[in-house]
Records
---
Amino acid sequence: MKPAHRIFNVVGARPQIIKSAALSRALREHYGGLMEEVMVHSGQHYDKKMSDVFFDEMGIPRPDHHLHVGSGTHGRQTGEMMRGMEDLILSENPRLVLVYGDTNTTLATALASAKLKVPVAHVEAGLRSYNKSMPEEINRVLCDHVSTLLFTPTRQAEINLAREGIVHSGEEPFDMDHPAVVHTGDVMFDNALYYGREGKGNSRVIDRLDIRDKPYVLVTLHRDMNTDDPGRLQAIMGTLLKLAEDEKITVVIPLHPRTRKMMAEFRMGKSMDSSQWFRITDPVSYLEMIALEKNARLIMTDSGGVQKEAHFFRKACIVFRKETEWVELVSHGTARLVDASPEKIREAWELFRNQKNLDFPPFYGEGNAASLIAGTILRFLEREKST
């Protein structure tokens, strides 16, 4: 029996762990024996509530290698990850490295791999917010430009890549200069369908927060542009508190560690803790998050992933940003950008509270993105081996 193709499946932050679940499942169920999955964790998210719980509940294999990089400035963290990934690639000799999204883990892995001439496959390629003040935008752009296989979740992502001169070469063998751009749909949609089935969700969080049969708004807030600016954080949180009190509606906030830290540092939170309309909780697991999203009246967030999940579960979404990489949601009218403006937050709330018949088109594929990606990777590796 010929040896399996060894590939690195690299994660570091909560969203990547979630996305990797779909690929890991496809590799095990359909390509076992053909591709050897080696799970690598950079350590970018090291809190158990932001990392370990997702491996446990989503059935993802535990990391074979853990770089334990931890937190730090962007440059220091990225540099430490590059050093660790380079050593690991040289010792393990993978045929291909699989990365997700737009984190420092993604950038560090892509750069280390490309310089060692190991092909990079980028899941969620082509997304653009066109705001390079966001570290995520820099990460995703640079990663795309050194990738050999670029898997796009939307048609708009293909257009974005073409504008930068990255188009499907049509000629094999593929490489960084002549990449393959493949539209697959979104692996997060795969997961939403798989884990959103009856019996796979975790509705105990609904009872724990005492919100069963009660209307509530689900809020997540974690980006440093919002959490690290006291003016923006106060504007958002103060408006949410006023809305909750005025409208007599519960606001549920699974609080990111960074947000909790900055709220304490800026001496915020006392009025929210004492409000009967606020439910502030620690970060929740993925299955708990699905349960909260499915039962919410409305979702408010600065997370790209949560914007999409709102769409998957047919919920309107208010976005605490000036722009989004998921432009189709805004142009279609199921999401609205409000930045940190109290006036815009209220306007969006008034708009969505009275709209009952929003349409949610299938922007993100058919729920088989992971299988398409895994199959494409195998064909690439088999053809590369034969050349």
---
Amino acid sequence: MSILLLVIIYIVFISLGLPDSLIGSSWPSISNTLEISASLQGVVTFIISIMTIISSFATNFLIRKLKEKGVVALSILLTVLGLVGFSLSNNFYLFCFSAVPLGLGAGAIDTTLNNYVAIRYKAIHLNWLHAFWGVGATISPLISGGFIASSSDGYKIAALILALIQGTILLIVLLSFPIWNKVNFNLDSKESNSEIKEIRLNLIKTFKIRGVLVAAIGFFAYIAVEQTCGLWFSSMITYGFNMDEEIGTHWTTLFYLGMMIGRFISGVISLKIKDKNMIRIGEGLIFIGIILMTFKFNVYIMPVSLVLIGLGCAPVYPGIIHATPNRFSKELSASVMSVQVGCAYIANITAAPLFGIIGNNLSFLLLPYYVLVFFIVLTICNEVVLKLTKDKSKLLSRLKVN
């Protein structure tokens, strides 16, 4: 039963990635079809992220009411509704309205599954599961790119096909409910879930845990790097280098392909290398990719740099997630994870949209320099968190919690 549940969770992670790359890779086509400014992608991202933040912070409440399996099923259903809405939207306002359920579906499932897997599985599984997120994120631009090539509004058909795929995954989850009920132990330590006495704290108290604020800032910076590259690289190629929209869409696929392949590789390497060192390796690759992206003399260097950034992002996110129970203890993990994931997506309503305004008014060619700033913040925060959480006895020193 435990192996079958693992297979199902892998499938669910594909569903997490499917909607994430659709808007960024298809935005030039979407903006032209709806006859709106390219910078309005930031508005859609803002709506999705606000909804994601709300559902992330509400995860503890939702799990108490629906359990993990219920939260997963509800979240996938919401993404189906959002994708169908995209396919039917003939104006920008309906498109924005459809972004609401898409965002609500993304936050709770992300927080729920990340914490569920981080506590119960080894790092190899978390890396590979996020590689399967990359499978979904890679499939999406390929589907949309193919339909955009044959029709200016081909993204609508692509969104509908993605909704059908999501619906199939939802059916699998619903049929698997009995399995979730039977599998109730830690797969690595064989430790009963009931023996993990979770300390559930509200938002304000969670931020008082030693190191949480710095960890949240680091997550913010990581998402800023990943989302800005994923959302705006296609626009940089299209508007900055005057390349065809289709080329920008397909090159964006390389970013998610790099993350997908990188996470499969990282999973194997993680058996021998600790989370903190996996994160450092990823940061090194991201840095090289960003530097190469500043070389504007040849546009064909751009996809190479994007692949390197994707490979670098591969171990960073799952590495931080998997390290959370070790850094902050299993008892505090659920509360910390909710805050980390929620705050991470605040980057989607600030950092990523802000670059849309910068690119539209100045130049989309500023992308690598913009991303470099957040990369530096990410690197510093990851090192500081290690020092602040080294002594576990001090984690709750600012709270009256035993």
---
Amino acid sequence: MNRFLHLSLLHFFMPRYGLVLLWAVLSCSAQAEPVEFRGHSVQGGVLIGQAPPGSQVSWNGEALPIGEQGQFVFGLAKDATKATALRVTLPNGEDWETEITPTPREFQVQRIDGLEPSKVTPPPEVMERIANDAHLARTARQTISEHIGFDVPFIWPLEGRITGVYGSQRILNGEPRAPHWGVDIAAPTGTPVLAPAAGKVALVHEDMYFSGGTLFVDHGHGLMSAFLHLDQIDVVLGQWVDQGQPIATVGSTGRSTGPHLDWRVSWRDVRVDAQLLVEATD
């Protein structure tokens, strides 16, 4: 028997970011076990779900992996506007369904000058290198592992001044380019970078053309952190890292005007906002 859930929403407004923190409890009756969400139901947000163990979950008709304790995760694209359907089939066979419509956001425009011209408009002789870098990153982001490192509050990988944010339209040396997908944190070269959540190292590259020293950590179920412009990488491919463990150091490699960390998060091929995974700090 199908039953349609109602979302009970409690909104916490975050003045620094102008975003909404969504805690949704899906419930059908007093007798049924709830399905809980935590995260941000906004463009670029990530929602982490908790269903009764033994449930099955589908998102827009596609089955999602679910942990032994009922954990699952999915992300919302920057330009997502339409309601999307979530179905949870409980261990007793009942289907619970709901729709989630992302709250729209306004994104900044950021101008960056002083970049090396070849990093804005690459010469033909490096295009093969750039394509290979993109292939390696795309392949790593397609990892759908069973381990669960995402089911904790994320921490900042380092402290520092935020100089760039997710979704901002980049104007590089006066030329419009693609949106920025990460959060930039300024810090001196050599500052330790910590794992924001546990996971397995999915990509290590000492010198990509645009991102320089590049490290990916797979938090499970398609949720992936990327750390760019690194000076030194202190872990190896396939290594498990714990939350808070030093994994690299800040640098200014690749397309960069100064030492900083560019921390990005994706869910499968959806670029989401890393900043929404941690609490706002002033």
